[in-house]
Design goal:
- The complex is a heterodimer of chains A (341) and B (168).
- By secondary structure, chain A is an alpha/beta fold.
- Chain A has two domains: 174 residues, Rossmann fold (3-Layer(aba) Sandwich), CATH 3.40.50; 152 residues, 2-Layer Sandwich (Dihydrodipicolinate Reductase, domain 2).
- Chain A contains twelve helices and 13 strands.
- A seven-stranded mixed β-sheet of chain A has the order 4-3-2-1-5-6-7, sandwiched between helices. A six-stranded mixed β-sheet of chain A has the order 9-11-10-8-12-13.
- With 168 residues, chain B is α+β, with helices and mostly antiparallel strands.
- In chain B, a hairpin with an 8-residue loop joins strand 2 and strand 3.
- Chains A and B meet through helix 11, strand 10 and strand 11 of A and strand 5, strand 7 and strand 8 of B.
């Protein structure tokens, strides 16, 4: 049995879902692969749960509301990742803080220092990947680290794993896709119900598909971040968010959708990486095109030199879906490191 | 999609069975007849001018039709084809009319006035004070010129603060 100590930074929806999954599945991992996952710390913005010796009892922590964290004997108020992340003995750091697209902090610092301190890292955070990908990859390479980030792109679609495990013999020449469920939900509503953008947005917010500040989604920033990660990982680009040509969907009118319909087109917010260029913008696509998916779904098309087009589609991420992608990355690291022993 | 629209004026002997002679090669090479006009008020020396309007998949097939017609002794008086082959749509959203739509069109077709055309413009305006949505059908002779037309639309949109949506 090989024990892997891991740290979670950020105990929001994805962090809690991950803890629940570990509670549910760790016995299975022990039996199946001889892997025992031991969570030694969970950092939040105001303190941390820590038990380096026995590992945390995730079962009791997972349902604690934030105002009851201090009721846990393992809670250390004011014990912050900035000061203590590197001093805790661990193999894997799981970075799940909220995406900050402006400067990627604090996630960027957590990831970078963890890699430099010989920890493998898993993240769902688009910020550091879309702003500092080339730099982080150099650190990964020079420190012989493993760095996985499947949950950062395409909702639950296992695009990076599919590429790295199944498509290595294919040359991918272009990527296109619908990478943001919120903007696709709004455009689908506008198309089907012939309503203006602001009403479709309001409905998306009421149904929990859009944030109170929807700008990351409707301006294409979220999709652009995912496109950068995909293009860097799969097409070998060394790009960052500023390299993406980007247009939002907030100016689209029901009349424009009607004009498109006359030609049997629909308007979709499409992300495209090809010929070294990156773009997220509304496009006219034929009604029968593969990219014409409805609702909050995501879709990615890989154009290959040898195998034509390969299409992956699935729901945009929720807490448990993203956590399952994070856990798969953790297991990949465990299995890889176990083989090396 | 590459489809040429052709207008061809021919002279035919004014007697029964002549028209079929020209329709056969057009059909054989994939031509799709849209209109046929006999200009009977211009009959001269027993020859009647005939104007044919048809679509043809590409220029090579049009050349083959011309060769075949000449081979069977048909005189082609006039041949006009639209610039072309490549068609694409662009939708502009914003104050498209207030920001001088004529100027927008001129700038695009002036890239190459012989080989780029704006074939159709459609607009939907629900409220004159609000942004309008306008669709343009562009036709060019080459793919490269279509790309240039798209680029020009993009430049203009940036300059006039319009949202441009083009085909993927």
């Amino acid at each position: 049995m090989k024990e892997f100590k891991f740290i979670i930074i950020g105990f929001g929806t994805v962090g809690r879902s991950l803890a629940k999954l570990v509670v549910k599945k760790n016995e299975q991992f022990k039996k199946k692969w001889g892997i025992n996952l031991k969570c030694v710390a969970i950092f939040e913005y105001n303190g941390a749960f820590v038990d380096e010796i026995n590992g945390l009892d995730l079962k009791t922590i997972v349902d604690l509301p934030p105002n009851e964290f201090s009721s846990s004997p393992n809670w250390k108020n004011g014990y912050l990742a900035n000061d203590h992340l590197n001093s805790i003995d661990s193999n894997i750091v799981v970075e799940l803080t909220k995406t900050n697209i402006k400067d990627a902090e604090p996630a960027y610092t957590y990831i970078k220092t963890s890699l430099l301190n010989n920890r493998d890292v898993v993240t769902s955070n688009k910020g550091p990947l879309s702003l500092y990908y080339p730099e982080l990859m150099k650190i990964v390479s020079s420190n012989n680290r493993l760095f996985r980030f499947e949950a950062s792109v395409g909702g639950i679609i296992p695009i990076l794993g599919t590429y790295k495990n199944l498509l290595l013999a294919n040359k991918i020449i272009a990527i296109s896709g619908i990478l943001n469920g919120t903007s696709n939900y709004i455009l689908t509503k506008m198309t089907l119900e012939k309503i203006p953008f602001d009403i479709a947005l309001k409905e998306a917010q009421e149904n929990g598909y859009a944030e109170a500040d929807p700008s990351l989604d409707i301006q294409g920033i979220d999709a652009a971040s995912k496109l950068v990660i995909l293009a860097n990982s799969i097409l070998g680009y060394e790009s960052s968010l500023s390299n993406v040509k980007r247009q939002g969907i907030d100016k689209i009118t029901p009349e424009a959708i009607e004009l498109a319909r006359e030609e049997r087109y629909v308007i979709k917010h499409v992300a495209v990486a090809r010929d070294g260029k990156l773009e997220v913008a509304p496009k006219l696509i034929p009604e029968n095109h593969t990219l014409n998916i409805s609702g909050t779904k995501n879709i990615i098309i890989l154009k290959t030199e040898e195998a034509g087009e390969i299409v992956l589609s699935g729901r945009g991420a929720g807490g448990i879906e993203a956590a399952s992608a994070v856990l798969s990355d953790i297991l990949y690291i465990c299995k890889t490191r176990k083989k090396e022993i | 999609m590459e489809i040429l629209n052709v207008e061809m004026e021919l002279e035919l002997v004014d007697s029964p069975g002549q028209l079929i002679k020209i329709l056969v090669p057009i059909g054989k090479f994939g031509g799709n007849i849209i209109n046929i006009f006999h200009i009977r008020d211009r009959i001269k020396n027993n020859y009647v001018p005939v104007i044919l309007n048809f679509d043809i998949p590409d220029i090579n097939k049009l050349n083959k039709i011309k060769e075949k017609l000449q081979e069977i002794g048909i005189k082609i008086i006039r041949l006009e084809r639209d610039v072309g082959a490549y068609k694409g749509h662009v939708i502009l959203i914003g104050h498209v009319f207030d920001s001088d739509i004529n100027d927008t069109i001129d700038e695009v077709i002036n890239i190459n006035i012989e080989k780029i055309q704006i074939r159709k413009i459609s607009a939907l305006i629900r409220d004159p004070k609000k942004p309008s949505s306008v669709k343009f059908l562009i036709q060019t002779e080459t793919e490269d010129l279509m790309e240039k037309a798209y680029q020009k639309f993009e430049e203009i949109s940036k300059h006039k603060n319009l949202l441009m949506i083009k085909e993927l």
